[in-house]
Every structure is written in structure tokens, then in C-alpha cells.
Amino acid sequence: SLHDIVVLRIFLFPVSSHNSSYFDPSTNPNPKFGSWSEIKGPITTHFEEWLERSGYGADDFAQRFFHEFGSFGGKTNDYQKIKRTPIIFFHGNEDGALAVPGNYTSGSSSQIEYFMSVGYTPAELYVTTWGDRDSSKSMTNDHSCAMMQRLRRFLLAVLDYTQSRRANIISHSMGVTIARKIVKGGRIYEDEGEGCDLGEPLTDQIGAFIGLTGANLGMCACQGLSTVDKTCSPNNGFWPGDECGQNVFKCFSSHLKMPCKQENYSRLLWEMNHDGISEGQEVFSFWSVDDDLILNRAISWGEPTSFIPGSRPFVFQKMTHMETKENTTIQQHELLKPYETYLRIVRDEPILETQQQSPLILGIFTVLLIVILLLTAKLAYDKFSVGYRKLDYTEF
């Protein structure tokens, strides 16, 4: 019933509010849930200054509101070498870049810690916080144009800054559908306003795309709430549809008495699942049948909502929503290995091409000059010889 859905919503999205001081360990030394990340941000000064010079200053990718937990990544200086394809992380709803106390706020800390342990550097690992990390507002977050355009700029900025031909993406929860749309591009329809167009697909610039516990068919917790919460928007949210064939409010049913194929759900999700545009060279889906947030074996209308169409699936047991992200770092790394080699962008710059061709041109010019000088010398010698002989004949 609708009453049960509302109760479930309150259970899944507890209400608590945080201000900036909450994210400062010195003012909140003994958190009730979770712990502070041992990995510290924000993005490096070198990256931040480059962003400012390159026109990204207004995007605030550093996210200093969250102190050292709002972002991560970047080189320390111009001379630092990048040796691996950069990884960009996209976190979920209520979460952020790095771990802070909370039920669903572990960020990308465990992943970054693992990748650094196998040789990655901050110059090859990037994440920025896209939400306010406030659970009391979690149901107001949808795939808004402002947020999606900003995060697409973040992806493009990392590619440009690292001069990498491609990036690898690891996304979690709501970050899965965020990252999918950023790569796919195209139009977003909002509940209010005309929406926006993100642009052309970026598939060729993505190596491996990993989606961890996403909700690609919507969330059953959103049935009946399409007009109540923005997160459950039928346009750009996680509305799973309230009916499927003759089944009404049965999204959570693992075995529908009247089987159906759900086609009437969030427009954003439906279009991504049917557009035929890949999220990368290879795509992988992770989920747990014991997910404590998606629930019901991660099923929506009888289908696995965490499965990305066309992807290679990995299904786990006895892992929570966050553990599926935190405890599978080794598997994540293995899947990235074929795309780990850093490939630098080679730009078409006429000046550089001229410089590369100049030794050959100079060599040709030198040979021609020598030939001309030799011919000139020979002509002068021949003329002198003829004149000398004529002079001798006159005298005798």
C-alpha cells in the first residue's frame, strides 16, 4: 500500500542535517556512525590552479565546504608524470568524495586507498562531491541539468588536465546513472523547465565503465511517489512505474503472478536503457542480492535493477549496499587492467609539426645549397680556364 511505501521511505532515508562544522573532525571528534577518511583531499593546488586558468573556477570542484573530504586528485607540479589511465569516481546520493561519519557516506576512500597501494598516485585518481551530503535532503536529488552539466565538465576537465586519451570510470549507487548519462550525452527532461542537452557521446574516451549497485530500472521505494519526491521523478529520477501490465504496486514482488515487461518508468532511465550507446569500451555491473538499500535482491518488477544493458554482470551475496563498493576493490582493479596503460593525447599543432619536419627541410636545403655552390664554382672555373687559354693564344 501507499502507506507502506511512505514508511519504507522514512526507513531508507533517515532525517538528519549537517552544516559545514560537521565535516570538520576537530569539532566532531566522536562520530556516531562510520569514521573519517584516512585519505585526505581536497584536489591539489596544481589541479585547482589549472581549473581556474582553464575556465572551471565557478564549478568549485574542490568542494572545500567539506574540508579535506570534499574532493581528491591532481598533480603536485608540472613535472609529475602520469603513468596510468586516470580513474574518475562518481559517488551515490547522500554520499561524497571521501568518507565522513554516516550510514551511506563512505565515499571513494577505500577504493582510492587500494589503488594507491598498487601504484596509482593522486594524479591518476579523481573525485568531487556533487551533493550536499545531507540525508534530510536526499529525496530532493534527481539528475538535474545543473548537476549533470557540472559533472560532465569535471570528466572533460580531468581528461584535458591529464592529457589522457581516455578515462576509466567507477560509479556507485546514484553515481551509476549519473555517470552513464554523462558519457551517453543527449537530452535531459526535467519536471520543471525545458531541460538541457549534454552533447555528443563520450564513449570513445572511456575505457572501462564499472557500475556498482545502481538503479537502472528505478527504485521500488519510489513507486507511488512520482509526484512527491524529486528523486522519484518520472522524468529524471528513479520512478519504477506504479503498474506493470495488470500488476499494481507490486514492484517489490520477486515472482509476479502476472509476469510483465516494465516499459513505463523514468524517462531518463528508459532512454538510457534503449539508446544503444555504450558507456565505454567495456561495461561491468556489480550488485548484491543482500543489498540493504535497494532491497528485494535488487529486483524491480522481476528484473535486476543494477544490471546495465549490455554489461558483464557480477553478482555477490552477503554484502550491503556500501560493502559492494568497499569490499570489491580487487575485482574492480582486475577489470581496469586492460585499460590501465596511459595514452597521451597527441594534438595536431602546426608549430610542432614544423619543428618536427624542420631537420629534414634543413637537410634538403643544405644539400641544394652545396650543389648550387659546386655548380657555381665549376662555372667560374670553366670561364676562367677559357679566358686564360685565350690570353695565351694572343700573346704567342
Automatic annotation (TrEMBL):
Pfam families: Lipase_2. Gene3D superfamilies: alpha/beta hydrolase. The chain crosses the membrane at residues 360-381. One of its GO terms (biological process) is lipid catabolic process. Keywords: Membrane, Transmembrane, Transmembrane helix. Signal peptide: none annotated. One of its GO terms (molecular function) is lipase activity. It comes from the Eukaryota. This is Lipase. It comes from Pristionchus fissidentatus.
